[in-house]
């Protein structure tokens, strides 16, 4: 597992990739000319966007290709098919 960080005081305005949980530095990503103010990860978890006061938005392919998604199960059109079971209540008739 890996962790990506940025800090306002780094001299090269870099992002740093760490091996988790040992916290060994594995890479430094440079390119910003001012400190990094914001980072966000893409929904697939592979790409990170960073932005700073140097008026640049940088995209980093940090975590590799996304895992191959399993095909979605076929849609079932039967009513209540998504339920495991349905409880039936039996009513006693009053005579």
TrEMBL record:
Please, which domain of life does this record's source organism belong to?
A: Eukaryota
Q: Which SUPFAM superfamilies match?
A: WD40 repeat-like (SSF50978)
Asked if the Swiss-Prot or TrEMBL record annotates the protein with the keyword Cell division, the reply is: yes
Read off the InterPro entries from this record: Cdc20/Fizzy, WD40/YVTN_repeat-like_dom_sf, WD40_repeat_CS, WD40_repeat_dom_sf, WD40_rpt
Q: Cellular component terms, GO, for this chain's entry?
A: anaphase-promoting complex
State any GO BP term from the record. positive regulation of anaphase-promoting complex-dependent catabolic process
Q: What does this protein do?
A: Component of the anaphase promoting complex/cyclosome (APC/C), a cell cycle-regulated E3 ubiquitin-protein ligase complex that controls progression through mitosis and the G1 phase of the cell cycle.
Query: What is the recorded name of this protein?
Result: Uncharacterized protein
Q: Which source organism does the UniProt entry give?
A: Dipteronia dyeriana
């Amino acid at each position: 597992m890996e962790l990506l960080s940025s800090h306002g005081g780094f001299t090269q305005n870099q992002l740093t990739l760490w091996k988790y949980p040992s916290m060994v530095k594995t890479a430094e990503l440079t390119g910003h000319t001012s400190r990094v103010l914001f980072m966000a990860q893409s929904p697939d978890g592979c790409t990170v966007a960073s932005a700073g006061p140097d008026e640049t938005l940088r995209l980093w392919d940090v975590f590799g290709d996304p895992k191959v998604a399993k095909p979605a199960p076929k849609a079932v059109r039967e009513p209540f098919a998504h339920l495991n079971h349905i409880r039936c209540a039996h009513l006693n008739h009053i005579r």
